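Budget justification note: compute hours in this period were largely spent on complex prediction jobs such as the one shown. Inputs:
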Amino acid sequence: MRGRIGSAFAKAAAEGRAALVAFIEAGDPDAATSGRILSALFDAGADVVELGVPFSDPIADGAVIQRASERALAAGGGLAASLDLAASYRASGGSGALVLFSYSNPILAMGEAEFTSRASAAGVDGVLVTDLPPEEGRPFAAILRSARIDPIYLLAPSSPRARIRKAASLSRGFVYLVSRAGVTGARAELPGDLPELAARVKKEVRRLPVAIGFGISTPGQVASAARLADGVVVGSALVRAVEVAAAAGEDCVAAASGLVRSLVAAAGR
Amino acid sequence: MTLSNGKTGPDARGRFGEYGGRYVPETLMAPLEELDRAWRQARHDPSFRKELKDLLANYAGRPTPVTVARRLTESLGGAQILLKREDLLHTGAHKINNALGQVLLAKRMGKERIIAETGAGQHGVATATACALFGLKCVVYMGSVDVARQSPNVFRMKLLGAEVVPVEGGSKTLKDAINEAMRDWVSSFASTHYVLGSVLGPHPFPEMVRTFHSVIGQEALAQTAKILHGRPDLLVACVGGGSNAIGLFHAFLKYPDVGMVGVEAGGRSFAPGEHAARFGPGRVGVLHGTRTLLLQDEGGQVLPTHSISAGLDYPAVGPEHAFLGGEGRVKYVSVTDGDALDAFHRLAELEGILPALESAHAVAWAIQVAPALGKGKVVLVNLSGRGDKDVPQIAAMEGVTT
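Corresponding output:
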């Protein structure tokens, strides 16, 4: 049975565009604003929203998401608050596809089974754990699947063919392809070998959509990546837009949704 | 881990019981496998072993002696105290054992650039030293709090040609330096080796770092056999990540008559954020690629830590220590900042040795237990480093102008 994530990718494909996957840090700059941003992202056309769970030691993130994580934690954010955010979105009638993007430790601290049942109750559709590769994550992936939550694995330029296949077989919903070796954050250009990388991964991952992320921030970059995969993830650029607006005392919600609108418009093929 | 039942570890997945493993972003999986393969080849290669052995003997100054701490023993009126003198090594601490080993390995792997994290600065100095020796570029990440309190080591690293990058994120100490080093490595692994400085991090680091330091215990086993015609009754070592402790303990694990104590930083108090004692308050968690005991809050956020010694100021413990503690093979205790500082002064005044504040934690525990153990028993303390680096900090704390 296709879940909300699968349907979101299918809908985008039917409309002749790549799905726009928008990442925000849950609870940044505070819980209430973050909730309004979440709804606004879907209203602006995002197909999937990734809610980043704030963590004290985000080793895979660049400076922008590190700062957002610190702000969210200072405002009382964390895994429980991220689940609350998802739950209130659902309670208000939201039907968008929601992915939680977390580090291992907050989930381990809550307990994998407890987390899964709370995530399921909150209406979370998919879970991606940055520092939980397939080797360590099999039991958790099984727990998620039994609750009809999609486990999503990352692939990287350094992933050999066997790992691509392993991640593809364990994932549901979509597979997340990291565009370059590095941490999250905007870059001036997409890597030159991205078309070759995307083709290599698409060839092995036939069953699921592939979304490309890391270093994609502008409509032009979205347009290029949209031709290579089924979805495009934009994270740091959105988080930065929220940060800049908040610092200037401007409307973070409008800043985020304005950016998403321009990104969605660029995702056509 | 080699227990009396002959079990060795870690397993193929890098697990010591339920601890260890490889919890890293996908991007680092391939480089870790590359490192694992290179390390397994190198460790059995006679030419690699010979070159490392030669460096340790003729550059670093191994073997280090075992010193009978005569006046300290007399003043305590109990067990005899011996000191394994890692403080006499080149660069002033045991860290050089691992730095030389890993830099030699990196060179063999064709890497041109080395990165490292450092807390007290000893690992940074050791790595910068090995890089100077081999002509490799060296970048050391160091929390800005540690940069301030270990300034002599910062300057030493610069003199050795390394670039020292102060880390301003999070608590600005060792854990944040590791975060930043891992972020560097995620993008640079093709040309760069990350010389992790303790028995921490993803597999194969805990096993590899242990192996490079296990020379400490191998020497101590032979040396104490000569001095005592037997084995010591108790080994004592400080535990931040736990590399000097595992290095001393490892060769002795198969002798059930040898007790072992790992001494953690009790800091100012047992309130959260005021110490770095993971056994007890710590719960199983994942940090920096490994599953181990971790100081964390209810929500799984890593807690800040405090210790007078930068090298022990870290919220997680090496996974093999978590395992050995769970098995009951090693007992883990903590001593306070104040006790460590007292031990620093006592060793200085009674033995003419300034211990590193990290090592002073181990000395403090020996001072506490020696009277009760009684005469006829022998305690071997790993004096993992010398205290020269701590002199300005201690002078400032005690209101002395140097």
